[in-house]
Amino acid sequence: VQLQASGGGLVQAGGSLRLSCKASGINFSISTMNWYRQAPGKQRELVATSTTNGAADYADSVYGRFTISRDNARRTVSLQMSSLKPEDTAVYYCNTLYRMRPWWGQGTLVTVSS
Prior knowledge:
This protein is mainly β. The protein has strands spanning 2-6, 9-12, 17-24, 33-38, 45-50, 56-58, 66-71, 76-81, 90-98, 101-104, 108-113. Strands 2, 4, 5, 6, 9, 10 and 11 form a seven-stranded mixed β-sheet that branches. A four-stranded antiparallel β-sheet has the order 1-3-8-7, with no helix packed on it. Strand 7 (66-71) and strand 8 (76-81) form a beta hairpin. 32% of the residues are buried.
């Protein structure tokens, strides 16, 4: 199983970024896909979830600003982040549960400057 995340970078507050995560080694179309983030000195937190029926769920802190989407044909889950705030600065990880264990991408750093 591999989860390859990309798209992080430095952006000013109020700006936008799009993260992508390409999965291999799993049956992507029947896998719930998640984005987590971990800010310096803080615990990793769940940001957004994309279920197999296309439903999405978000942390309160990002609701209305972030959008998770999936492309089953490309085995990719994306996170469109808008109206970014300095407190969104973190390493973002894609994640899924497969064969009863969690799998993590390598993380991509998002830095939002004020």
